[in-house]
Design goal:
By secondary structure, this protein is an alpha+beta fold. The chain has three domains: 52 residues, no CATH class; 48 residues, no CATH class; 103 residues, no CATH class. The chain contains four helices and eleven strands. Strands 4-3-2-1-5 form a five-stranded antiparallel sheet, with no helix packed on it. Helix 2 packs antiparallel against helix 3 and helix 3 packs antiparallel against helix 4. About 3% of the residues have low confidence.
Length: 239
């Protein structure tokens, strides 16, 4: 398949056409020249060109939504349809799921969003997951449960595949784990010190946790940094 701008045409995609309207690819009838049928009744070739030789208003110009329902994101302000919603976003090679307001939508650094889809509903919390993982881990290590307590000496090493990714685990909420880039990843990658690390941590979570108090902590750590690193005097009325 030749495709349009390097993107293969598929059923279910939504394309912006030459006349500015968006049209969905609804089927492929196997025609040698114009196999792809659009929802308005027009057909296009494998290069996205409309079979009609006149105005060619249905020529495919730009992919708007892929065949899996993800809207292609090309930067700018956060889409209004995502505000206050739970979304799936594609960032690099990974797909993340979480509140849309926590993601960075304006294309900066490694947090570029390539596509998004508003979720039908938030994923229900699964409080039993960690308990189940703990039981499976203990059993794999050789422990047994008699209905009241776990017994037997554990093996020296945890079996391969039983150790969860530390970044996928958070004690006391998901306000860090749901971030496009977790604070610890950014802090570690940039070799930040204690004060700077706390600034990143508190400013990242303030909307999801302690609000203004977290912002005051950010200000406080900035003041500490000024005093300890640069010898600046204490700020009157500091927080």
């Amino acid at each position: 398949m030749v495709g349009v701008n390097g993107i293969e045409i598929k059923v279910g995609q939504v394309w912006r056409c030459r006349d500015g309207k968006e049209r969905k690819v609804v089927s492929n009838d196997g025609h040698d020249d114009w196999p792809w049928d659009l929802e308005n009744g027009d057909s296009v070739s494998d290069t996205g060109a409309e079979f009609y030789d006149g105005e060619s208003n249905s020529d495919l110009i730009e992919l708007v939504k892929d065949e899996n329902g993800f809207t292609i994101w090309r930067g700018g302000e956060q889409p209004a349809e995502t505000r206050g919603k739970v979304v799936e976003v594609r960032i690099g090679r990974s797909t993340k799921h979480g509140p849309a307001d926590r993601y960075m939508w304006n294309h900066c650094g490694n947090a570029d969003i390539a596509a998004y889809k508003v979720a039908e509903k938030a994923a229900a919390p699964q409080p039993s997951d960690s308990a189940t993982l703990a039981e499976e881990t203990l059993s794999a290590l050789g422990w047994t449960f008699d209905g009241q307590a776990w017994t037997e000496q554990p093996k020296a090493e945890l079996p391969i595949g039983m150790v969860p990714n530390a970044l996928d685990v958070q004690v006391g909420g998901t306000h860090y784990k749901d971030c496009a880039i977790q604070p610890i990843e950014y802090i570690h990658a940039n070799k930040l010190g204690f004060a700077e690390g706390n600034v990143v941590k508190y400013i990242t979570r303030h909307r999801q946790k302690h609000g203004a108090d977290d912002v005051r902590k950010v200000i406080h750590y900035c003041q500490l940094l000024l005093e300890l690193e640069y010898g600046a005097g204490k700020t009157e009325g500091g927080v």
